[in-house]
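G., the chain you wanted modeled:
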Amino acid sequence: MDEILDRLDDVAQKYDFIYRCRWSHWFYVPKKSTIKLVFYYYAKKHHVLFGISTQWTTLNDQYPMLKVVADELWKSTLKWKLYDIDDIQKKWIIEIIWVCADYYWVKAK
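Predicted structure as tokens:
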């Protein structure tokens, strides 16, 4: 599981997100007078849970396939369960991070 977390850290650190880490890894972007959660991940017992925040965004409208490929759909979050390092590639997690980075940085300008 540490290998998954390390790989996700490597990818996410390439972008200029505001980073916070406690029991999980949280990535934010500045939004007017506050900060907006973009995505997060943390280790559970048998897997790593990766989620993106879709609240107050048009991500689901612009990228409807995100809802199709997600393991869990919540009102404001899409989640993926990663059981081994290959799941990062199989579930297109790096590409999802790219989509989020592109979406938020284009919107911020």
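The chain has a mean pLDDT of 90.

Shout if anything looks off.
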